[in-house]
Amino acid sequence: MCRNIKTLFNFDPPATHDEIRDAALQFVRKLSGATNPSKKNEAAFNRAVDTIAEAAHEMLHAMETHQHPRNREEEAAKAKARSALRFA
Fold this sequence. Notes:
The chain has 88 residues and is mainly alpha-helical. It has one domain.
């Protein structure tokens, strides 16, 4: 489940709200052990996703670095190459 959480800091263009929310969703899924919560737990599950997404958004926008922003396409190509070696 957590393999889908990607690094979101220091990219050009910056991480979108949807990317941050998707990472928060994966995190809550991992913590709860459930991909889809039961109807009884759905409100708590969604509240946790929203809270974590908000905290992550604040953190990403507050962090500073002296490094140049990374390029999304280059990082995706590197990840694809690592995956090819791993699963070849």
